[in-house]
UniProtKB/TrEMBL annotation:
<keyword id="KW-0408">Iron</keyword>
<feature type="binding site">
    <location>
        <position position="303"/>
    </location>
    <ligand>
        <name>Fe(2+)</name>
    </ligand>
</feature>
<protein>
    <recommendedName>
        <fullName>Ferrochelatase</fullName>
        <ecNumber>4.98.1.1</ecNumber>
    </recommendedName>
</protein>
<keyword id="KW-0627">Porphyrin biosynthesis</keyword>
<dbReference type="InterPro" id="IPR033644">
    <property type="entry name" value="Ferrochelatase_C"/>
</dbReference>
<dbReference type="GO" id="GO:0005737">
    <property type="term" value="C:cytoplasm"/>
</dbReference>
<dbReference type="InterPro" id="IPR001015">
    <property type="entry name" value="Ferrochelatase"/>
</dbReference>
<dbReference type="Pfam" id="PF00762">
    <property type="entry name" value="Ferrochelatase"/>
</dbReference>
<dbReference type="GO" id="GO:0006783">
    <property type="term" value="P:heme biosynthetic process"/>
</dbReference>
<feature type="binding site">
    <location>
        <position position="222"/>
    </location>
    <ligand>
        <name>Fe(2+)</name>
    </ligand>
</feature>
<comment type="similarity">
    <text>Belongs to the ferrochelatase family.</text>
</comment>
<keyword id="KW-0963">Cytoplasm</keyword>
<keyword id="KW-0456">Lyase</keyword>
<comment type="pathway">
    <text>Porphyrin-containing compound metabolism; protoheme biosynthesis; protoheme from protoporphyrin-IX: step 1/1.</text>
</comment>
<comment type="function">
    <text>Catalyzes the ferrous insertion into protoporphyrin IX.</text>
</comment>
<keyword id="KW-0350">Heme biosynthesis</keyword>
<dbReference type="GO" id="GO:0046872">
    <property type="term" value="F:metal ion binding"/>
</dbReference>
Amino acid sequence: MQHQPNSAKCPAHAPSDHPALPPARIGILLANLGTPDHYDYWSMRRYLGEFLSDRRVIDYSPWLWQPLLQLVILTKRPFTSGAAYKSIWNHDKGESPLMTITKDQTAKITETLKARYGDDVMVDFCMRYGNPSTKSKVRAMVEAGCDKILFFPLYPQYAGATSATANDAFFAALMEEKWQPTSRTVPPYFDHPLYIEALAQSIERAYADIADRPDILVCSYHGVPKRYLMEGDPYHCQCQKTTRLLKERLGWDDTQITTTFQSRFGPEEWLQPYTVEEVARLAEAGKKKIAVCAPAFSADCIETLEEINEEIRESFEEAGGEQFTYIPCLNDEDAHITALSAVIEENLKGWID
Ligand SMILES: C=CC1=C(C)c2cc3[nH]c(cc4nc(cc5[nH]c(cc1n2)c(C)c5CCC(=O)O)C(CCC(=O)O)=C4C)c(C)c3C=C
Ligand SMILES: [Fe+2]
Ligand SMILES: [Fe+2]
């Protein structure tokens, strides 16, 4: 089925000053978390302020949370996080790795989908926090003639703090459109066979390059407060299922792979076990060679390049660990682009085939 051209302008009845309408097309809008424009104090403060004010991320009453955030956290954390960003920054391009990788993914997905659908589709990306904003990209797609938009949060596992808040920003952007495009959001793909396959291939490739086979693979997922799980967020279960499917695809048993959660923030209990503690425990228990991968992240970012590959590595080595291998995220690897493009194609059904 071909996408139908825009038929809203009827030449016989249109007034002479009727606005011009571009040919109708389908927009595919990829969304990631967002990243600071720079690692200086004010860029960091702006980014963290927007992120940590999102009640899908931190759900405390703003009356209690905002004074603490504005007066305490945002006076210190922009410095420490800014230094961490500086250590991983893509200085050649003047942007964070998350931004560079998201652009590369967008370019490759565009190429794949254009080869299949031609100019009936346009592909772009937006961020939940910072730039380019979701609102600006929805506006640009509507202006370019998109009367349908498929919105794709690039998180394999659903969490209120990631997928839902990305969707919220998308719906808020639609609220401002006079002629609102028909819209769909892409569901989580934590169990999609091609995502599992891409993960498995990346592990097999990494293991083939390591002379001394690791004792165990640690699948480290970004954490959330445990309370969110108790309140109905399926993130924890989806992470566990991704690890199980990966284990089955690799043909491994439970001694060769484990699930942990990283990036704890604040005093509440988060999902356990905490990666930083678990890698130390593994070293102390005699697992001196480990590999760590991060299946919840579609692109390498501060949480993987700095937290896993620097802080968590250090925790392992201080506890007596000897060989630590970080396995990069799927980023713009071919198998990942194939998986993401397949998820998109499945969700375009009925709009264009
Ligand atoms: C404070 C609460 C946080 C929750 C809950 C949270 C959930 C969550 N986040 C990601 C993915 C990413 N988080 C990233 C950075 C980051 N995350 C938090 C806090 C929470 N995340 C902070 C404060 C930061 C900023 C860095 C820092 O100051 O520590 C990123 C990286 C962005 C980048 O530019 O590189 C990603 C990606 C997931 C998947 C998730 C829950 C499922
Ligand atoms: Fe985070
Ligand atoms: Fe669970």
